[in-house]
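Structure first, sequence second, as always.
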């Protein structure tokens, strides 16, 4: 029910979505939700998750470090 309301609200098919904190429980749920809606998901976190979602691109990044974020942004544009 919630998914159909989200799909009716906006179309994110083939859009790029960057999720920070993606290795946690909420981040994993967000990744899988956006993937199911057709988005290209880039998952940022300081550690890789134990279980990965197949079509998600995982990038190790510390958002508290400007250099780390700059490097991660290059990977977003390269994916």
């Amino acid at each position: 029910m919630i998914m159909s309301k989200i799909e009716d609200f906006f179309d994110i098919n083939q859009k790029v979505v960057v999720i920070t904190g993606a290795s946690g429980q909420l981040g994993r749920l967000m990744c899988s939700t956006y993937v199911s809606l057709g988005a290209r998901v880039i998952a940022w976190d300081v550690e890789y998750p134990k279980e990965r979602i197949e079509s998600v691109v995982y990038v190790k990044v510390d958002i508290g470090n400007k250099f780390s974020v700059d490097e991660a942004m290059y990977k977003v544009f390269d994916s």
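Margin note: The radius of gyration is 13 Å.
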